[in-house]
Design brief:
Blueprint: H1 12-39, E1 49-53, H2 61-72, E2 77-83, E3 102-107, E4 110-115, H3 119-127, E5 139-146, H4 158-168, E6 173-178, H5 187-210, E7 218-223, E8 233-235, E9 244-249, H6 258-263, H7 268-288, E10 293-296, E11 310-313, E12 316-321, H8 333-338, E13 342-347, H9 354-370
Parallel strand pairs: 1-2, 1-5, 2-4, 5-6, 6-7, 8-13, 10-11
Antiparallel strand pairs: 3-4, 7-13, 9-12
Helix pairs in contact: 2-5, 3-4
Length: 373
Amino acid sequence: MATSVKNNFLNPALVSNLQQALLRRKDSVQEQQHHNRANEPTKASSKPVVLVTNGDGIDSLGLTLLVEALLCDALLDVHVCAPETDRSVCGHSVTTGETLAVCSVQVGGANAYQVSGTPADCVSLALSGALFSWSKPVLVISGLNKGTTCGYDTLYSGAVAGAREALICGVPSLCISLNWEKNVSCESDLKDAVTVCLPLIHAAIRDIQKGIFPKNCFLNIGIPSCPLTNKGVKVTRQSPQRSSLSWQAVSTNKNPSAGHYMSNQQSLGIMLAQLGRDASAAAAARRLNSNRKNVEVESVGVAGKFSSQQTIKKYFRMELTEKEQQDIEEDLDSRELEEGFVTVTPLSLYANVHMEIQSSVSSWLAIALSGDQ
């Protein structure tokens, strides 16, 4: 019996489709491999890694100018992680129990992330390894910030907190601020301030790699309001001054709007939850005090007495005012900055090692500024 053998050839159209699919898959794999290589740290490069943050927010000109200057000579691998909004007076607050939003951006040509948190959040998150491929930067810089960070103002400063958080995490750091004078300073002063601080930054990186940079402290660097005409660099001590806190009684219609309030919160979900809790608490309070009469007081010192059945509600707003000028000792940061010096103030986590650190920074600065390698 004759046997008929049929050829098992696939449909030509199907073959063509399979070939095209395989080619697309190959191109996709090659593209992914190229992308992965691009995102890997350059093993052949020995560029020191620098992390930059600030207190003024990701869009501040001082941050952009500093990053551009650090990248200019292509000697550093610069990365940025900074708050999405101005958090210059948030102190060393960190965000717990809430979700932070992190978005990739470009700042001055560097890869960057903006974070819906504080400067301390930004530094802690960046150093955790969750954002960048490197394990640890050589140096963390908080700057360039607008406004002085002298005296007790360092306790309120979000910019200083960014540098302090780096020290807590074991990374050397600098906080750099320009003595910005309202209605006097201009953008060109920020550029000049960057020019003035660059030698200190490069000296710090060089000596960190040599192992001779001062330890157990971070450096709070103040640039005078006229940077290019500065009188030199001085190691200074933290002064006992702070900006005056002026509390003003305001009327209800001057109270910050809900929009302003919400813009300062960390996420929409948290805001709505908080508003819900506030509404519930307010409703409970109204039920509890249904027989009490509410009296809103729009200023302090209102004459008259109120009965126990009345609730008094007042509104206040705090404003920071200029420091009061006093006859203070030489070598204190606020005085020397006003005199036109670039101030370098070592700040430590430990109060009992002040003199040792002061001497260490003085010795290092003398060598760094002499140009000796």
